[in-house]
Amino acid sequence: WEGIRLHKGVLTAADEHVRRLFEGAKAIDMDLAVSPRELVDMVYAACDANGMESDVHIRLMVSRGLKPTPYQDPGTTLGIPTIVILPEHKRASSGPKTKGISLFTVHVRRGAPDVQDPMWNSHSKLNCISACIQAKKAGADEGLMLDPNGFVATCNSVNFFAVRGGELWVPTRKYQMHGITRQRTLDLAKKAGIPTRELDFTLTEVYSADECFVTGTFAGQIPVVEVDGRIIGNGERGPIVARLQELYANDVDQESQKGRRLERFSTDIPPIRRVKNA
After folding, report:
1. Whose CB among 22, 210, 235, 278 lies 3.0–4.6 Å from 231's, allowing a Cys bridge?
2. Alpha helix (H) ranges present in the chain?
């Protein structure tokens, strides 16, 4: 599945989202039976039919399709995949963007790609759901997850950043979803002259950070003002995240001004090629 924003009639980072969806589908040997361009056309058709322009969040979901009986083997699937396009009028609350959220470090660890590749944006993300439950039970807004070696990895539904000494720190991509807003935030920071580092770091370095924040498709950049009961910085939105919020909003506006540019999707991702029996 993918979550995509519609801003001023244009899907934000549509090419990146669609490519990630097709890459994940190919990794699990799922043929979507449509091209990237056809899929984007379907999403726009659903939004246009409902008169949607802005403040729209689309959940794009695909599954293998119908089966004659409950069974794990994908080979029993009948017909083509099921594609669900669910656009909703949904605006991110302004409160967290300024006041921030709290995190709680959960016991659930992020696994290596040979356990479950973090690039698979699958429906069965029970490790992230378990992390979410534990964080909520602890009174926090989101769960902070460590990697198998005890370094900070990511959150249960968003990517994590820290600011220390004027530098923007972000965990390496080894144990987390390669977030599209995460990468866009890094690119904007570099263009703005903000030093960035992708590295392993510990909770001790998080607790003493000057700022922390998280990124995601729906809300962009959200400040983190508390982690495990420790106040981050002065407990308020910091200047780096405030600057990145402004840069990101302007960047999304500029993208929408270019229009839908459907020609970007004319080249398909190489299809799955079936090996024929001799």
Report:
1. 235
2. 14-27, 36-49, 94-99, 113-116, 126-137, 180-191, 203-207, 239-257
